[in-house]
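Why predict the complex rather than its parts? Because the way molecules touch one another can change local conformation, and only a joint prediction can capture that. The input here totals 934 residues.
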Amino acid sequence: MLQSTNLRAEYGALVAVNDVDIRIETGEFATIVGPSGCGKTTLLRMLAGHQAPTDGRIELDGVDITDAEPQNRPTSLVFQSWALFPHMTVRENIEFPMRNSGLEVGDRVEELLRQVRLDPEIHADKQATELSGGQKQRVALARSLAYEPDILLLDEPLASLDYVLRKRLQRELADLNEELGMTFIYVTHSLESALLMSDKLFVLENGNIIQTGSPEDIYRAPNTKFIAEFMGDANTFELDGATERDGSYEVHAAPFDQTTTVPYEDGRDTPAYLVVRYDDTAVGTELTADLGLTVAVENVLVRGNTVLVECKQPGDDDEYVAEMPVDAFRATGIEKGDTAYLQWNASKSILVPE
Amino acid sequence: MSTLQRLRTRLGRSGASEGGVVELLAPPWILLVPMSLLLLVMFVGPMVAIVVFSFQTGNSIVATPLEWSIATYEEVVGGVISGEGVYGDVLVNTVAVSATTTALTLIVSYPAAYALARRIKRYKLVFLMLLIIPLFTSVNIRVFGWALFLVQNGVLDSIVGLFGIEEYASLMYQRSTIILGTTYVYLPFMLFPIYLSMLSIEDATIEAAEDLGASSYTLFRRILLPLSKPGIVIGSLFVFVLSLGANVEAEILGGGSIFTIASNIQYSFGYSQNWPLGSTQAVGLLLITVVSGIVILRTIDLREIAERGD
Amino acid sequence: MSTRTLSFGGRSSGWIWYGYVTLVALFLMIPLVSLVIASFYDGRFFSIVDYQFTLGWYNAALSSGSIRRAFTNTLFISVPVTVLSTIIGTAAALAYTRYEFPYRESFKLIALLPIFFPLILLGLGMSMWASQIGLGYGLVPSIIGELVWISPIVMFVVSITALGIDPNTEEAARDLGADTLTLYRRVLFPLVADGVVSGAIFAFVLSWNNYYIVSYLSGPQSTITTWIHGRMTQGFTPVVPAVASLIFYVSILLVVGAIVIEYRKDDTGE
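Output of the joint prediction:
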């Protein structure tokens, strides 16, 4: 188990990581997610030992490793740039950590290459500079695994790869985590990666962990408007009334001018926003769902087999979007410039505190 | 052995956090020591010596600053202002030589730098070598080569003779000959900074300008010139400062026909053995050099040069 | 469009640029070529039509005791300068490019400043300083003096190579268990090796050709450049072009070697 207590990093007056407590169980695939500049890379670098924390502790299975040098830590970092040694072959790159920690080489190189789905016959004796991006990424992974770390740290290593390759490697990383039983800590700004691979998610904003939980939990009950918007395209309504009633809240917002009851977990601050995702929202000529508002359709964008309907209320700048299947939208007969109802069912509403 | 045990033994081995003296023996400090010592002892020291000597009355240093004198400054600065003595002429000569050299090297280098960076693809390595080799040949050997070329019964005489021209004004020992020498010697110092700044202009920038209907004149004035300005600034400062200190050129090609600051300083130290007077003139050169050097170094981005890989 | 054909871009006008650069290159080669032509010429009045070839001056140069001594002295300065400036410059370049430390930019500024100094200023200051601190004049002071100018140049050359290395390289090596010795031996040194070799070659050639600093610090010892200068200003002999050419041949071989190494690297590993 990896645990940090009050972990803090300051650059002069700037607090990059603000008293962060995290706890990751052995074998878990944990993802630290947040926008650029949120302190996620600093946090990862402190876990790897490349940066000394200003304050706080890091413990691994009860041993304090806060001040351990990176070369003495059982962690290994896969860099965003992969940082393969360009003057070495693939084999030499992979043997490097084994020689450093006195591990038996044997045919481990071949074994590791197969593990990351590279053919040793073809790739083992290539120069590191001769590889493609995806291959470099795989070799960097194999090299880190060769170190036999307890914890594998990954700093957005898939960021510069194309979409298809990234998808495939995400799946492979998740499989590898399962297969090896090794703890993976992945840092990313891309929610898509976070949701797909992780057992546990830490959402970081301005150096603070603002929510921890499984991907489903966070998707279903985001802690803040920021997370709700970050988790996916959503319409946000500012509440102008919220009253508690039996573990739910009766809320009201000016744009839809209706009162509705939405379930809300206990022990959180009073809700301040109602959020509903684009794909839970539809437009229609009649109000058939629980909640809705009258809007003018400003624009219709086709996105594959769904359309994005961009709407505004007269005299208001806030834009609302409904994402619905092309056929369903065609059936309504609505066109750009028409007046319509933007609507959704009350159960799809999500309340979030300020 | 479990990883945790491995970790424990490693943590134990690295021992208590090394501090103080031991830390100074590790990189980067240990790497900084040789250069720092060298420059402190043999660069900062000598430059301070020049400044201190300029306030002395004889060829040795008097320890008490109360007995220092500004007589040499009065002589040199006063001489420049009143026009008495040689100092005014020397200053005018020197600045004229340096400014002309800077202008000439700029005019000659700019098209060549453009051509090398953007036009020449085949035999580029050969051209680069031809341009670099003179930089690594002793100044006095190159100047001597010019003398062999220009001197009576020299190479030029022989070539010109082929065309039947027997009588023409000798090129040796003229002011223009000194400028030929300095222009020659410092040309690469102008050419390479401009070449590097031209290399950093992306092809797409030029193509975009052409697509947007820029004439060749507009292309030059609005795109090439502004984007190569850092190279022009660095090159000009480089050539101006270095040619201020040019002495061998004046000595060999000018044959003592013209005095510059460098030859005057040399004279004060060598022939007339007046170190304070020589130092006072050197202080002027020192000031210009330090300021220009700092401007150059602040303009140069080593990282950018590294990325261009040339 | 008429602007196209006139412009910098016209493909047909490419030869003009080749022609111009060739002219500039010729201009730069004139004195060196003159030197070599003169060094093989046997006669008082020079003539291209009636060229009289001889190796006599080279023979005379190589058999003269004073010239041989000057060559030995030059080597005695250049070899230590090459070794020491390579060590000093490489160390400073690695510190500057691969580490963070307080006043890092100021360090670079001061360390590279000597490159931009007119050598007469360096030589003069050093000469006065050497007499004040009791260093005196001779081969050892010349070595120290040249180091001041040449170590920063090596630092410059190695820095360019070192800045091209992925900034995460050291962290990756540490992360994979490398101690400081392993990091330098297996990763950093191999990666900067090409830059160090070029830097060392440049250091040797610059020291081999140095006149100004040596002329102020060598005292009674004569090196090949001060010998040439003496012969140029007082008492020319036809041996001078041969001696100067010998220096030039050594320089050209080494510089061409350095450039070829540099370019071959660019072609193979990217």
